[in-house]
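Example record used in the benchmark description.
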Amino acid sequence: MAIYYFNLALLPLALLAVLVLRREVELVTLFIIGVAAISISALRWASDIDHMEYAQMFEENPDLPAFNADSIATLHGEPGYLFISAIIKSLGFGFVTLSSICALFAIGAKVLVAKGLSRSSSLVVALYLCIHFVTIEFIQIRWAVATALIMIAIYLQARRHLAAAFAVLLVSTSIHYFAAIFFLVCLLAEVRNEKTFYAVVFLVALAGVGLAADGFHFPLVGDSELYVVKRALRYLTDPLSDVGVLSYAKIAIFPVLFCILEKKYPHVKNDKVVRFLKRVAFASIAATMLVSFIPLMHFRAVVVADFLSLLLVFRMLDHRVRVEDRAAIALVFCALYGTWFVVDIDNYVAADRLYPYQTWIQRD
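Model output (structure tokens):
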């Protein structure tokens, strides 16, 4: 089980790289973190509760000649993911190849987006892995890939390649339907009037708080073999879990920190990327709050909100910020997220959702 705690060894390294402020050290550290996370995820075999179900999905997936709407109608998974599986299968490869490619893309894309938007990318990635490696990058293959595509789309939007950004978002929706909500996030980020933007964000978040507090649910009943219908009924009628106070606190702290940093260091607002990241971070947090009345959706949306918020915080700290402030914020994040990482793994093991680690090289 010790390998699951790999990020605890890398977190101090990322912290040191950020405090040293040397780009070459930062890039080497980012590379080490990326390779470690990708390797652990790509080599796994039957190490979590969902892995063998994904392997079974692959076995049931048709190859390309047999791939059509009828052949996939009752299969678990979205058309884009099933199509990729069909390609891999038609090329003569197995599920190991598919899961390894997904791990490489899902983590690799987030590493590259972080590198492109912050000079503190190694710590951004290390902190992100503390809170989402096990759940997303290790267990939830489809959402890991979909969130990577969402990050790429947001990166393209930051660079003002809007057509390409929305095309990538469309692809992400074909991998996981829930990605569709981030069309709204990216569209909201394009609202030019600042007062209008923050008014909409506030109202969306407030609506989410109201729905969650009221215990809102959809009294839907129905029966269908179509995957999209079954998933919708499951989300809307069976929340499965609750969103805890700590989960809300984890995202609520970001808007407060953004405002504190802006007030103390107003020059950060001169950075166009900071201004854009602030918009998509606030919009993502609002979207996360909006769907919190369905806990499973909250835990999907918060992945993007956390990544973007971390990017924004450390993009701000990339500017002329006092070393003491930079170090204090980085240390607090490392302490809190490192603790979250340990507790998260322990909870997964206790719930029998995470098993002793083994690789496909070791399998019988």
